[in-house]
């Protein structure tokens, strides 16, 4: 995604000026614990989906400052700080929620421990990854819930930065999307890729006598087979469906609708396809869909959905609202007391309580190593992710598949009201136990 030479510069200037000051006064090597969490969910959301863990762990192992990066910093950093950065390697420990876990306000989804110097440099990188990927995954999960058992395809690459598009495709797949149009997401992460043609291909088949939609369909079928998806709304939908079945036969895989009143059109097209004998031909819809539009189409004969802009922009919540805060120095809890931005100090872990049916009831955040007694089912959420700067386990396609299953299981565990798309309180409360006293 990013070449290793530039990873160290994926940060903000103030992290380096803090480092310089801490090196100068001798505090840089104090043992520090930073936590990444969301104070609250985006307005009206009932849960979040954690995404980006695998990407961050891969980036941490490559977080370096080469000669070119150091040259770019020399105008404001002193030689001692530049020397430190030239030798920088993250050698600390990372704990957190496994990727794909649901999270709620105050969930300690990532804990970074090491010297202040090595941990403070990671703030912007960690927040950039988690705020983007978790926002996309949270929106994607809502769309998957709205779609029921019908597949949803990610097709938002053209609506975001070219590199963010790859991360968004990964996050959407993690949250339950069936495929992506993005080829780099397929190569890098093993995300299934999908795509056939755009309106331009149909328009290409225009001659002196005017448009020849049937010729465009014939060319696509010849290249991709009758199981392809034909885009039938370039001109007139009824004529397009008729031409599609005439060219491909009743075994045509699917038709796609990308504009107009999709519910009305889907019903009309379903009747037309059935009348033409194409009873197994699927209907795919796309065009500015979000979770609410998908929910409105659930009663219509739609077989799958393509989503772009709303997904890659978080469907109204483009950032997950996570923060990265220092909570402990040399084992001493530290607390931020700013108005409306208070933090609870101390290294924390979490577990999730549930009923015997499996439905979760509350998130419990507690001082590390002091898990509370629980009478009913409970599951520890905090797991080791990195030790001594080395990632534990794997971060590739197999890990992504596991995270995908984790999201699905998490959604199944929510109380039914937690799956509502309407605005409301978080699906379960976050309870804090045994918080250390403020110094």
UniProtKB/TrEMBL annotation:
Pathway: Cofactor biosynthesis; NAD(+) biosynthesis; nicotinate D-ribonucleotide from nicotinate: step 1/1. Its EC number is 6.3.4.21. Catalyzes the first step in the biosynthesis of NAD from nicotinic acid, the ATP-dependent synthesis of beta-nicotinate D-ribonucleotide from nicotinate and 5-phospho-D-ribose 1-phosphate. Coiled coil: none annotated. Transiently phosphorylated on a His residue during the reaction cycle. Phosphorylation strongly increases the affinity for substrates and increases the rate of nicotinate D-ribonucleotide production. Dephosphorylation regenerates the low-affinity form of the enzyme, leading to product release. InterPro entries: Aldolase_TIM, NAPRTase_N, Nic_PRibTrfase-Fam, Nic_PRibTrfase_pncB, Nicotinate_pribotase-like_C. SUPFAM superfamilies: Nicotinate/Quinolinate PRTase C-terminal domain-like (SSF51690), Nicotinate/Quinolinate PRTase N-terminal domain-like (SSF54675). It holds the Pfam family NAPRTase_N. This is Nicotinate phosphoribosyltransferase. It comes from Mycolicibacillus koreensis.
């Amino acid at each position: 995604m990013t070449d290793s030479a530039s990873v160290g510069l994926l940060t903000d200037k103030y992290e380096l000026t803090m480092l310089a000051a801490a090196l100068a006064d001798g505090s840089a090597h104090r043992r520090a614990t930073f936590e990444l969490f969301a104070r609250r969910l985006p307005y009206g959301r009932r849960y979040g989906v954690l995404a980006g863990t695998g990407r961050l762990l891969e980036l941490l192992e490559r977080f370096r400052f080469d000669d070119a990066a150091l040259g770019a910093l020399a105008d404001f950093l002193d030689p001692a700080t530049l020397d430190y950065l030239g030798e920088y390697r993250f050698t600390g420990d990372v704990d957190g929620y496994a990727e794909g876990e649901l999270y709620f306000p105050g969930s300690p989804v990532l804990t970074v421990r090491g010297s202040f110097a090595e941990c403070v440099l990671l703030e912007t990188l960690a927040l950039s990854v988690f705020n983007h990927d978790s926002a996309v995954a949270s929106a994607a999960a809502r769309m998957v819930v709205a779609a029921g058992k019908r597949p949803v395809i990610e097709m938002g690459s053209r609506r975001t930065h070219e590199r963010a598009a790859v991360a968004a495709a990964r996050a959407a797949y993690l949250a339950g999307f069936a495929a992506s149009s993005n080829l780099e997401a397929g190569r890098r992460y093993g995300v299934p890729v999908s795509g056939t043609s755009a309106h331009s291909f149909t328009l290409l088949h225009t001659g002196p006598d005017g448009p020849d939609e049937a010729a465009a369909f014939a060319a696509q079928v010849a290249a991709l087979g009758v199981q392809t998806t034909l885009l039938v709304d370039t001109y007139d939908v009824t004529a397009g469906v008729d031409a599609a079945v005439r060219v491909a036969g009743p075994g045509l895989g699917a038709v796609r609708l990308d504009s107009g009143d999709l519910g009305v059109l889907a019903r009309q097209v379903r009747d037309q396809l059935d009348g033409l004998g194409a009873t197994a031909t699927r209907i795919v819809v796309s065009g500015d869909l979000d979770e609410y539009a998908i929910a409105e189409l659930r009663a219509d004969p739609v077989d799958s959905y393509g989503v772009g802009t709303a997904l890659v922009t978080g469907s109204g919540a483009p950032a997950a609202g996570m923060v990265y805060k220092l909570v402990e120095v040399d084992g001493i809890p530290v607390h931020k007391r700013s108005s409306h931005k208070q933090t609870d100090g101390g290294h924390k872990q979490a577990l999730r309580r549930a009923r015997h049916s499996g439905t979760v009831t509350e998130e419990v955040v507690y001082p590390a190593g002091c898990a509370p007694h629980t009478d009913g089912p409970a599951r520890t959420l905090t797991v080791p992710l990195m030790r001594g700067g080395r990632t534990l386990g794997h971060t590739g396609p197999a890990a992504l598949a596991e995270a995908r299953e984790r999201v699905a299981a998490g959604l199944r565990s929510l109380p039914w009201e937690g799956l509502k798309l309407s605005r409301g309180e978080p699906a379960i409360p976050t309870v804090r136990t045994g918080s250390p006293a403020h110094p």
